[in-house]
Amino acid sequence: MSVTSTTSQNSLFDVIVIGSGIGGLVTATQLATKGAKVLVLESYIIPGGSAGYFERQGYRFDVGASMIFGLGNRGTTNLLTRALQAVNSSVDAIADPVQIHYHLPNNLNLKVDRVYDKFLQNLAAYFPHEKEGIRGFYDECWQVFKCLNRMELLSLEEPRYLLRSFLQHPLACLGLLKYLPQNAGDIARRYIKDPELLKFIDIECYCWSVVPAAMTPMINAGMVFSDRHYGGVNYPKGGVGQIAQKLVEGLEKAGGEIRYQAKVAKIITEKDCAVGVQLTNGEIYRGKRIVSNATRWDTFDKLLPVDQIPSNEKKWQQNYKKSPSFLSLHIGVKESVLPQGTECHHIILEDWQNMTQPEGTLFVSIPTLLDPELAPEGYHIIHAFTPNWMNDWHGLSVSDYEAKKEETAWRIIDRLEKIFPGLDAGLDYLEVGTPRTHRRFLGREDGTYGPIPRRKLRGLLSMPFNRTAIKGLYCVGDSTFPGQGLNAVAFSGFACAHRIAVDLGL
Ligand SMILES: NC(=O)c1ccc[n+]([C@@H]2O[C@H](COP(=O)([O-])OP(=O)(O)OC[C@H]3O[C@@H](n4cnc5c(N)ncnc54)[C@H](O)[C@@H]3O)[C@@H](O)[C@H]2O)c1
Ligand SMILES: CC(C)=CCC/C(C)=C/C=C/C(C)=C/C=C/C(C)=C/C=C/C=C(C)/C=C/C=C(C)/C=C/C=C(\C)CCC=C(C)C
């Protein structure tokens, strides 16, 4: 055993964070800069979780997240920028001029321009009879964003913060209270009647919330549909992994510790209070507060006795289910494959009926268009991914698993050929990830992308905050308010750290 780990095991930490996803790292850095003694335990060999990376043959591939919100330089909603600033750090953010290039049924071929009015014009050109409705809906999304972007974003479980926010920004708070129980689809239907345009609003939501507009919380829609034109979508130079790496550097400078290949097997409780964790190798660490950045399913079904799941967690599981995982193709291609003027992010859907089906919506990200240094000279990265369920990958022999991967990958490459003719001939590298890959490397049950409502719920009202029914145990990340997205889990990190800092009297 190393000297560091013996020392760590004998110390009492203020806070132990299980997992170094962006949610966990924001919590850890915020607390370390407030003077807390923090230990992060990560099961993998590098930090970042879904916002991590891997390198093969001169390519640096992003594991998951690739369309990054929250790296803007103004307002209060740029939470990734703020989390980095808190540890005196930053990343070079490369502005993406187009959030998404949609390739949709009935030749709906549309670019979401960074400039708001240009986007509205592009959309109204397809639906001139709905020009007013389009502006009405997206302008209402801005109302949500303006409320959020005015105030400091901290723990909604801290009454003094709520009171202070209300006294400083009464109208913004009332605005947020109004939108908290609402979903984007209901608001869209007040302005828009054309069924095809409503389908477009569905995919606008689906491509980040993994549910249609009727089930997508309006607060989140307000964030995404406005911030893409305000702070914008920005790509961190050097790859998405830079964000986690810089947070770790900042954590260590602030006196915090991180250990890799440290998989937590169990959260230790004494008298119904979380007091420590035990790793798979038997090592025990004790802390005054324990934070789990694993999903709530992994936390309550695996790290704690399954027969003692608190009733509010059972209720949450009745309201939310695991979204599908993804089938991901990490591709290296010759630059000649990409037509002049290709955008970084694409959504491809041939038939509206298939939007929510496995392998229906195809997501494409080409980060080398913004940062060419992620691939060898003359080559690009194409990351193509599409929803896929773990059930389809269970119980296969090694050879059947490989054969199914290959067959699925070629179906996707055939679809990509329609916008990138010559892709097959220009292939230089191909690696396929399945739901099993996501489960293995991210430690997420069934490789899920995050929680989705089982039925239509009232906006964000049923999403739990950071505290749990177990004293001393907090959750952070995408199964915590306000849900998935790097900027969303960064919010959950700020909120979690704020609540713990108050609880510890820091
Ligand atoms: N997966 C994707 O394809 C994808 C794509 C786009 C965006 N995203 C977003 O990425 C965000 C995820 O952020 P997050 O902070 O919630 O979590 P995360 O899943 O990124 O990070 C969790 C971390 O905890 C570690 N971990 C899990 N169990 C552990 C254990 N028992 N012991 C030690 N370490 C353990 C994992 O290795 C991982 O590094 C979400 O918002 C998601 O929507 C994901
Ligand atoms: C005072 C009183 C009484 C009251 C008051 C009330 C209040 C204050 C309230 C508040 C609230 C709050 C703060 C809230 C917050 C929220 C937030 C922050 C939110 C956020 C969100 C975000 C999001 C959602 C994001 C997302 C994103 C994503 C998910 C993305 C993804 C992406 C993908 C997947 C993609 C891809 C694509 C391609 C490639 C094409």
Automatic annotation (TrEMBL):
Protein name, entry field: prolycopene isomerase
Associated pathway: Carotenoid biosynthesis; lycopene biosynthesis
InterPro entries: Amino_oxidase, CrtISO, CrtISO-like, FAD/NAD-bd_sf
Domain Amine oxidase: 22-500
Cofactors, names only: NADP(+); NAD(+); FAD
Enzyme class of the recorded protein, top EC level: isomerase
SUPFAM superfamilies: FAD/NAD(P)-binding domain (SSF51905)
Family, as annotated: Belongs to the carotenoid/retinoid oxidoreductase family. CrtISO subfamily.
Gene Ontology terms: biological process: carotenoid biosynthetic process
Keywords: Carotenoid biosynthesis, FAD, Flavoprotein, Isomerase, Membrane, NAD, NADP, Transit peptide
Location of the protein in the cell: Membrane
UniProt-listed Enzyme Commission number(s): 5.2.1.13
Matching Pfam families: Amino_oxidase
Any one GO MF annotation of this record: oxidoreductase activity
Record keyword Membrane present: yes
